[in-house]
Backbone:
């Protein structure tokens, strides 16, 4: 990159991950139509997106099929039905599933990589689950997958806890460690502090640093750019920012910024028009005031999500007073 | 500010300017009710906001009263009707009007400061109008007003032009020079470049640097924070981000971030609920896709605003194709 006007140049090693179906599915228990999932897939291919996270590899006993759609479990037959023709080499896209520590039957349900269209497993975990996460990463690596360590809710734990997680992740085969701002609480200077911490702890391992931002304070795109500026080479985004509560970094903003000519914006715009905007008739997401407030207060958005389903959903003052009374 | 966790400390000299009525009025030709303007005023007082920009001092011949509301002209009798009881010392608030170079009868229509509730005139100008702007600043200063130089559309001019404007503004009595991202096009590194340029050119003058951001790419709040981090002590925002096209930096986000205990968020939330959200029934603003695109392309939002009034307003692909064909 040029030092003079870096915003018109690019790093070829910077890769974009679409997590529309995985993260967006938290709004609707992953009950997307096959048509929508395929449309997101086709769009990722056309737009030059590097990774598409198509769902969770989560436990059927914890997330019964009666209540949750196929993309909560990513059974191989569901994957094959919708993207069975996938080919990494022909498309330039790698398919990804996320497995949560504590919520995944990972020992039994993840098949060897050469038997799946999936090429990567991202392991999501809270700090106190790091030991299981390390086991999961090693297991998935042995099965042939690229792997990633996604420490969630990093704004709610101490620096000593973060350091301990980084020490545990360092010797694993995880190719990426992501900064995950689950509560949408982090400001620019906190992204800097975390990036520096992650980079120093993982120096010399070849691990990439990723960024997964939420949009509670309209900072998801800005914080993604900030991490990229500092050196993060893995960036997560979703189409129209689709995601639980305030949503995520919008893909249309991220691809509009990135200068690698392989990225194409027009297919994204078409997907938004044909498939994503219509979802707003049944589900709500975006940086509404209620999510601004939980983000500012470093709270899980669940209180705001719940309040948005009540008759008082537009009584902002009442919600604010309740939040303040609770802290 | 602490170096370790600056985001929980504050600079007492950082002042916030509300430009809801002035900038938001570009949506509706400044045809706000007196009740709304007074509600914004009362909220600014209660919330600890330092400046409220209540409208333009623009020319009646160019902006006829038949078509434009009172806040396009800020005649003294209109000001006195709604905020005639204003007192800087009692409220801690200073009232501001903006005067545009080329659109203002400033020689005749700006009364001496001691005969007005206004305490500040901000002079807005394009680079090629800098000579008139300098005259306006000197004139308003002589009348007793605090003054500010607001170079608009800074993303669309050359560095040499910016340097020339800064040289011209440097010897004036303007207390503030603002970075104004009219097209909502600037990324973080460009804010840094401009801040450094403004700060170097104005060093030793005692002038403050301000930031006025637009939200085309969901970066208004982030860019405002960026300028503040670098040292800007004047930050503009509007209630709910009200403003033409994508709108502005949302006051509720800015005050939620600032740690000076004089700032209060609750009055803002109440205003949003009672007065600002209801405006959405008749006017549209916010970082919609159309504004994302004009921001990315460094275009005035007028094409997007016009398109949003057509029957094709949700045909994003058509709008994108038209924009691409035009550049």
Residues:
């Amino acid at each position: 990159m040029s030092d003079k006007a870096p915003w018109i140049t690019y790093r070829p090693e910077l890769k974009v991950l679409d997590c529309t179906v995985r993260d967006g599915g938290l709004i609707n228990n992953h009950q997307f139509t096959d048509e929508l999932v395929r449309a997101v897939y086709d769009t990722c291919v056309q737009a030059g997106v590097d990774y598409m996270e198509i769902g969770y590899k989560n436990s059927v006993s914890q997330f019964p099929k009666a209540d949750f759609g196929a993309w909560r479990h990513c059974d191989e037959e569901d994957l094959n039905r919708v993207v069975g023709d996938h080919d990494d080499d022909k498309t330039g896209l790698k398919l990804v599933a996320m497995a949560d520590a504590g919520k995944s039957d990972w020992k039994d349900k993840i098949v060897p990589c050469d038997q799946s269209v999936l090429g990567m497993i991202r392991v999501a975990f809270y700090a106190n689950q790091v030991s299981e996460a390390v086991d999961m990463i090693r297991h998935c690596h042995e099965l042939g997958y690229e792997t990633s360590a996604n420490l969630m809710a990093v704004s709610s734990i101490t620096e000593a806890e973060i350091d301990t997680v980084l020490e545990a992740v360092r010797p694993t085969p995880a190719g990426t460690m992501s900064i995950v701002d689950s509560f949408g609480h982090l400001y620019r200077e906190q992204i800097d502090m975390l990036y520096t911490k992650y980079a120093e702890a993982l120096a010399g391992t070849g691990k990439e640093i990723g960024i997964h931002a939420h949009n509670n304070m309209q900072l998801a795109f800005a914080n993604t750019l900030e991490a990229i500026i500092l050196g993060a080479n893995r960036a997560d985004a979703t189409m129209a920012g689709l995601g639980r509560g305030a949503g995520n970094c919008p893909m249309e903003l991220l691809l509009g910024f990135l200068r690698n000519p392989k990225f194409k914006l027009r297919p994204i715009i078409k997907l938004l028009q044909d498939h994503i905007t219509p979802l707003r008739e049944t589900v709500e997401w975006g940086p509404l005031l209620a999510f601004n407030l939980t983000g500012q207060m470093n709270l899980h958005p669940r209180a705001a999500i719940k309040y948005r389903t009540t008759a008082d959903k537009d009584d902002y003052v009442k919600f604010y007073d309740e939040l303040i009374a609770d802290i």
Notes: Chain A touches chain B at residues 6-7, 187-190, 215, 217-223, 225-226, 229, 240, 250, 252-253, 256-257, 265-266, 269-270, 272-273, 277, 287, 289, 292-293, 296, 314-317, 320-321 (CB under 8 Å). Chain A has 14 helices and eight strands. Strands of chain A lie at 15-18, 51-56, 94-100, 118-125, 146-151, 176-180, 208-212, 234-237. Residues 50 and 155 of chain A are 27 Å apart (CA to CA).
